[in-house]
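User: I'm curious whether this sequence folds into something compact or stays loose and floppy. Could you predict its structure so I can see for myself?
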Amino acid sequence: MSTVTIIVVVIWNVLLFAALATMLVRRERLLQWITQLDGQQGLGRVASGDEDWAAFLKDHPELTDR
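Assistant: Here's the prediction. I'll summarize afterward.
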């Protein structure tokens, strides 16, 4: 391999490791940011999703196997 290729690979690996280290250090804040993208608090959307789905199926009995 040429020297240029080795330098490019080294720089690329340094950038990848820096991104990984940043993610590991800030994982709590990153997870909060990801779960709040929809403007809701974390799993609140998931908890109410079951109730919404049950109400939808109640309105559409043709979708159930019963």
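Summary: The CA atoms of residues 8 and 51 lie 53 Å apart. The chain is about 75% helix and 0% strand.
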